[in-house]
Amino acid sequence: MLTARHTLIYVLLMTLVVVASNILVQYPLQAQLAGINLADILTWGAFTYPVAFLITDLTNRQFGPKAARKVVFAGFVVGVALSFFTAQPRIAIASGSAYLAGQLLDISVFNRLRRMAWWRAPLFGSLIGSMLDTLIFFSFAFAPFFVFFGPNDPFAIEWAPILGAFSTSAPRWISWAIGDFSVKVTVGLVMLLPYGALMNMLKPMPQAPTA
After folding, report:
1. Where is the signal peptide, in residue numbers (predicted)?
2. Looking at the domain that runs over 1-202, which CATH code has it been given?
């Protein structure tokens, strides 16, 4: 009963992050950094979405990977439902696929490293999961090869200077992916602070499975 109640808390937190990210992805980040117009490559959703990895890792630490997968699948259902209501089908497919693959990889990596130094499992789990998440989302959503998911976005595949600041050019979606992954890495490092603060309070349950 205790496990179910606490897992429900994680499910609600994951749902909150997914809902917030789906809303905030509509708002570009109005700022400049080193000559880069961040509004061209980032939205506020890029900053909230990586918190999902913290929730997954805390669930995994306390209750094991089986409970963590349940939390991830709950977020997947909510995320896909919201995406199909608020975005084109191709974006919804990309979003759902990226979230599920990235989070499940995070769980697998975390579980392999959980007995090492306390920071390794959450850090490498989130970074490797984020890398896969970014690769799948931006490829499925914008790469011309995946046109069978839906029509290509002419603006996304148009070539432009990388990050709007370098002489080398690439399709715009490449710059979007670079900016998104950079934020995920940054937030992943910052999330070590709340993880470290909470790990002594949220100790692994004796019955938590490890596979």
Report:
1. none
2. 1.10.1760
